[in-house]
Design brief:
The chain is an alpha/beta fold. It has a single domain (1-382, 416-480), classed as TIM Barrel, CATH 3.20.20.480. The protein is built from 17 helices and 20 strands. The protein has a five-stranded parallel β-sheet with strand order 9-10-11-13-15. Strands 2-3-1-12 form a four-stranded mixed β-sheet. α1 (13-29) crosses α9 (243-264).
Length: 480
C-alpha cells in the first residue's frame, strides 16, 4: 500500500473556480472565432449569438455540455490489449509531435527527416518499456505533401503496436486515417469501443478555432475517437504575460473545443491538453524547457482535473539543440513535475529545439527518465508492520541482509532497474574501473548504441500479414 502519492499543485480550489468562471465569462462576452461552417451551424442550432464568425458561448451551455465529456479514456494497442488509462493521476508517456528535423542516428547531424527515420523511430518506441504510446512524431519530406499526415499514421501502425497520438494537416485526410484505424479493428464500432489513436486539435491563440482543427474535433467525436486539445497560448505574445492570465486563456480556448465536441456528439471523448509556453524576450523564441512554461502546464492540468477530464501536456522536452546536460535537466525536471502533477499523457520524449527536432539518443534517455518518474510517483510502500524490526532480528555477523528473503522478494518492486539492451544501459552504475574497461562511454554514447540495436531488432509484436496487406492497400490507393 502506498503511504502517500507524491503531488505538486500550484492552484487552490478557490483559484481553480475563479479561472474557470472568468474563462466562461470570456467566451460569453468576448466570444471565440469559429472558422468551420459545421461548427457554426451546431452553435446556431443551440441559439448561440454571433457576429460574423465570432460566437458568444453562454455560461449555461458550457455547464450543460461539460458533464457529458467522459472522465476516463482507455486506449488499446494494435492487438486490442488495454495499455493506457487516462484518468485521475495515472501517468503515461508518448513522444512529442511533430518534428520536422531529426538528429541523424549515425552522424549526429540535424537534418530534414525521411520516412526511413520514422520507421526506425517507430521500431525503437515499440521496444521502450516506459513509453506506453507512440506518436506521429516526425514529419518526413519524401512523400507528397497531401499524404504526410495519414502516411505517418500508416507507417506508425505498421512498425509499432502501441496506441498512437496523431492528427491531421488536411481536412481530407481524416477519412483515410479513420479507414486505417478501422482496418485494425474491423469496424467503426470496435474502434470506438477500443480506441487505438488520439487526434490532436490545436486552437489558434488567442481565442480562435480554425476550420481544419474544428473539423478534426467534429469528425473524431462522431467516430468515437478521442480528441486531445492542444491549446498553445504564448505568454507575452499571443496571451497575457501573467501565468494566471495565460492559464485563463487556455481554459477558455479548451472550453470552446469541449462545446464543439459535445455538440457534434454527446459523450465524445476529449483530453484537456496543451502546449503553452512563455515568450523569450531576448531571442523571440518559445522555450518549452522554461520553468514558467512548466508552471503553466501544471496549472492547466489542474483546471482539467477540476473539470474531471483526462489531461495532457508537453513537459518532457528541451530547447537544447543536442542531447546534452541542458536536455537532461530540462527534460528531467519537466517529466518529474508532470508526474507529480498527475498529468495523464506526458508528451515530449526525444524532442529538442522548441519541438522541432527528434533525437533518437534523447528518446532512449527519456525512457529512463520516465521510468524513474513512475517509480517516484509510486511513493513509499507499506508492506505491513513492523517495518524493519522483523528483518533486523535475523541479522548477525554471519548473515547478510543481501540474501534475506525479503530482499530477494522485494528488490524488483522497490528499485527502478534501468532498461538493458544486449548488456548496454544508459544509466551507468559500474565502478570507475569497470567503466574504463567498457570504453569510458558517456550516457549519450550509450544511448546511441542502444538506439541502433533497437532499430535493428524484430518488432516486439509483429503485425499480422493480412492486416499489413490491408493497410498497404489503403496507402497505395491514396498515394497520388
Amino acid at each position: 500500500m502506498t503511504i502517500l502519492r507524491p503531488k505538486v499543485e500550484l492552484l487552490t480550489n478557490e483559484y481553480k473556480k475563479k479561472i474557470y468562471q472568468e474563462a466562461k465569462d470570456i467566451l460569453q462576452t468576448l466570444g471565440v472565432e469559429i472558422e468551420n461552417y459545421e461548427a457554426r451551424k451546431l452553435l446556431q442550432e443551440e441559439g448561440v449569438e454571433y457576429e460574423n464568425s465570432r460566437y458568444f458561448i453562454p455560461d449555461d451551455l458550457i455547464e450543460k455540455l461539460r458533464h457529458y465529456a467522459p472522465s476516463e479514456i482507455r486506449l488499446f494497442d494494435r492487438e486490442e490489449k488495454e495499455v493506457i488509462q487516462l484518468s485521475q493521476d495515472h501517468i503515461h508517456f508518448d513522444p512529442g509531435s511533430a518534428a520536422i528535423f531529426v538528429q541523424d542516428l549515425n552522424s549526429g547531424v540535424i537534418r530534414e527527416a525521411l520516412s526511413s527515420d520514422y520507421i526506425k523511430f517507430s521500431k525503437i518506441v515499440d521496444h521502450l518499456p516506459n513509453l506506453e504510446a507512440h506518436s506521429t512524431a516526425i514529419v518526413y519530406s519524401d512523400v507528397p505533401n497531401d499524404a504526410q499526415d495519414w502516411h505517418r499514421l500508416y507507417l506508425g501502425l505498421l512498425n509499432c503496436s502501441k496506441p498512437i497520438d496523431t492528427g491531421t494537416f488536411r481536412t481530407e485526410s481524416f477519412a483515410i486515417m479513420r479507414d486505417l484505424l478501422e482496418m485494425t479493428r474491423t469496424s467503426s464500432d470496435k474502434l470506438a469501443e477500443k480506441p487505438l489513436a488520439i487526434f490532436d486539435a490545436c486552437p489558434s491563440p488567442p481565442l480562435m478555432w480554425s476550420n481544419l482543427t474544428t473539423q478534426s474535433v467534429i469528425d473524431a467525436a462522431r467516430s468515437g475517437i478521442p480528441s486531445e486539445f492542444v491549446s498553445m497560448p504564448l505568454a507575452g505574445s499571443t496571451a497575457p504575460i501573467t501565468l494566471i492570465g495565460c492559464v485563463t486563456q487556455h481554459t477558455a480556448e479548451s472550453l470552446a473545443g469541449l462545446v464543439i465536441a459535445q455538440l457534434a456528439k454527446r459523450n465524445a471523448p476529449i483530453i484537456w491538453g496543451g502546449s503553452p509556453t512563455v515568450f523569450d524576450m531576448k531571442y523571440g523564441t518559445t522555450p518549452m524547457g522554461a520553468i514558467e512554461t512548466m508552471m503553466i502546464n501544471i496549472a492547466d492540468a489542474q483546471i482539467g482535473k477540476f473539470l474531471n477530464l483526462p489531461t495532457h501536456a508537453y513537459m518532457n522536452l528541451s530547447d537544447s539543440k543536442v542531447p546534452d546536460a541542458q536536455a537532461g535537466f530540462e527534460g528531467g525536471m519537466g517529466a518529474l513535475l508532470a508526474g507529480l502533477a498527475g498529468i495523464n499523457m506526458i508528451a515530449g520524449p526525444g524532442m529538442l529545439d522548441f519541438e522541432s527536432t527528434q533525437s533518437f539518443e534523447k528518446l532512449i534517455i527519456d525512457n529512463e527518465i520516465a521510468g524513474m518518474v513512475k517509480r517516484f510517483t509510486q511513493g513509499i510502500i507499506d508492506y505491513g508492520e513492523p517495518f524493519a524490526q522483523s528483518i533486523l532480528k535475523d541479522y548477525d555477523s554471519n548473515v547478510s541482509l543481501l540474501s534475506h528473503p525479503t530482499t530477494l522478494d522485494l528488490f524488483r518492486k522497490e528499485l527502478y532497474l534501468p532498461f538493458i539492451v544486449d548488456g548496454f544501459q544508459v544509466i551507468n552504475r559500474e565502478t570507475r574501473d569497470l567503466w574504463k574497461l567498457s570504453g569510458e562511454r558517456s550516457a549519450r554514447q550509450r544511448a546511441k548504441e542502444i538506439a541502433i540495436k533497437l532499430s535493428e531488432r524484430s518488432p516486439k509484436h509483429p503485425i499480422d500479414d493480412t492486416l499489413k496487406k490491408d493497410l498497404d492497400r489503403i496507402a497505395k490507393n491514396n498515394l497520388k
